[in-house]
Amino acid sequence: MAMRRTTMYSSAGKKLYAVRAADGTFKDIQTYERAHRADMAHKSAAEKKTAAVRKAAVKKKSPAKKAAKKAAAKKAPARKRAVKKVARRK
After folding, report:
1. Cα–Cα 20 to 30 A to 47, which of 19, 73, 80, 85?
2. What backbone phi and psi angles, to 5 degrees, belong to 25?
3. What's the pTM value of the predicted model, to 2 decimals?
4. What does the alpha-carbon distance between residue 34 and residue 17 come to, in Å, rounded to a whole number?
5. Quick check: is 38 in a domain?
C-alpha cells in the first residue's frame, strides 16, 4: 500500500506531498511532480502478478494453433466495402 501523504502548497504555489512518521513529524516532503512520477514508475504486486499470468498465457499458445489461424486468414477472401449509389436530384 502507498504511504499516506498530506497535501500542502509551497510559498511559490507548487503542490507538495508530505509523508508523516508514526509520531506525526514530517518524514519526507516532495513536490507533487516528483512523487507522482515515482508512483507511476513503481509497479504494484497486483500489476506484476497479472503481467506474469499474461506472459505465461502467451507462451502456452501452440504453434499448430498459430499456423491454423494464419492459414485461415490466407484462405478468407478480402471483403469489399459496399458502395451505395444515390440518385442525384435535379
Report:
1. 19
2. -75, 160
3. 0.42
4. 9
5. yes
In a domain? residue 81? no
Does the residue 13 lie in any domain?
yes
CA atoms within 13 A on the CB side of 57: 6
- Which helix (H) or strand (E) segment holds residue 18: the answer is strand 15-20
Given a cut of 50, is residue 1 above it in pLDDT? Answer: no
Tell me whether residue 6 is in a domain. yes
Domain count, the chain: 1
Domain interval for residue 49: 1-60
| CA atoms of 81 and 56, how far apart (whole Å) | 39
Element containing residue 60 per DSSP (H, E): helix 45-60
